[in-house]
Amino acid sequence: MFAVVLILKAIKFVEMLELAASVGKETCVGRRAALVATRHLCLTSPLLLLPRTSWGSTGFSPTASIDIPAAANVDRRYHSDGMESNSPKLQIVADPKTYSSLAFAPPNNNGKTPLILVLHGAGRNDQDIRQDLADPYGEHAGLIPSLIESGNAPHNLLQNFAVLAPYSYGKSSFYSDSRTKLLDFCDWAVQNQNTETLPIQFDPNRIILFGFSDGATVAVELLTTRRFAAGVICSYGYSGKTLPAAALDRLSNLPIWVFHSQDDVIFDVQNSDRLVHQLEAVNEKQGRSGMVRYSKYTKDPENLPPRVRGHSMGITASKMPELYDWMLQVTELPVQSQLTEANPA
């Protein structure tokens, strides 16, 4: 059955390539016109969809509740209205055509502030956005939004970064949704920043993708558009042996930090092993080094229950101050001329 799925995805990928050859140029021109005064790079290649490990093969349902022991160590100071008593507050913002999102602005927020775009993993995703993303006892507890709301986020995160965390309400994850929908959400954020609709500011050239589980697989796909400055890939789920050559070319010369635990029972650590090996190889071939970091843990540092053991890297990475120091080194998007593959005519 899984082989059939891979074949269907391959057919879909070929169809996307053919479609891009005919309409890609017009799409790119339109997107550039909508992003005047930014340096977003709209390439005419399609998104490269990556088949990730089937949830059915793991014995775990993405719609099942996950009790995260780490949450028990968080100081629960929520009032009855769901707001934290003495922590920075996340605001709820919404693009009516794509996603609702939690938004955070640091002190002295301005147009040069880097933005972290957080892509959560799979779950029921059928609750209030604040309950699922921000509550330290919620479905996606332990990721950046819940650390901010509970007052447990690293200081260098709170002081230096704007954050947007869209919510895939009604879908098991972003993997079940259109990738162009996320890109449209990014366009909306760029166009509406520093307004009543989106009262935060950020540098469009310093958008960093942070993806966990299914969100990590989607983040790698989005990075191939070259519209993002860097990526943090936690518990990656792509099950293919080799990424398409076009994908690897577009992932070269991008700062990427990969996290995985060897005892991950959901997505095998070999998924990340292969990703890192291929990224290092393509960067070395192009005379670049040091673009990829890999934090590979021998066992689950969060000590999650056996049915999800090791599938915790989004939690581990979110609370790591060193990660945000690394993000601050990201300055601008790779220029288009650095791509070895020519754009289609």
What would you say this structure looks like, in words?
- Residues 202-285 form the Phospholipase/carboxylesterase/thioesterase domain.
- InterPro entries: Plant_Biomass_Hydrol_Est, PLipase/COase/thioEstase.
- Keywords: Signal.
- This is Phospholipase/carboxylesterase.
- This protein is an alpha/beta fold and 345 residues long.
- The chain has one domain (2-79, 86-338): Alpha/Beta hydrolase fold, catalytic domain (Rossmann fold), CATH 3.40.50.1820.
- It has ten helices and eight strands.
- It has helices at residues 2-34, 129-134, 144-150, 155-160, 179-192, 214-223, 245-251, 269-285, 313-318, 321-328; strands at residues 91-94, 100-104, 115-119, 162-167, 207-212, 230-234, 256-261, 292-297.
- An eight-stranded mixed beta sheet has the order 1-2-4-3-5-6-7-8, sandwiched between helices.
- Helix 8 links the parallel strand 7 (256-261) and strand 8 (292-297).
- It is globular.
- Residues 1-46, 54-85 and 335-345 have low confidence and may be disordered.
N-to-C terminal Cα separation, in Å?
A: 38 Å
Strand content: 5-15%
CATH level-4 homologous superfamily:
Alpha/Beta hydrolase fold, catalytic domain
**What is the CATH topology classification name?**
Rossmann fold
The CATH class assignment is: Alpha Beta
Helix percentage range: 25-40%
Query: Mind telling me which CATH architecture this is?
Result: 3-Layer(aba) Sandwich
The helix tally amounts to 10
- Record field, number of beta strands: 8
Structural class: alpha/beta
Weakly predicted, low-confidence segments: 1-46, 54-85, 335-345
The number of domains is: 1
Give me the Rg, rounded: 19 Å
- Main β-sheet, spatial strand arrangement: 1-2-4-3-5-6-7-8
List the helices and strands in order: HEEEHHHEHEHEHEHEHH
3D shape: globular
Question: Strand count, sense and closure of the main sheet?
Answer: 8 strands, mixed
Average residue-wise pLDDT: 77
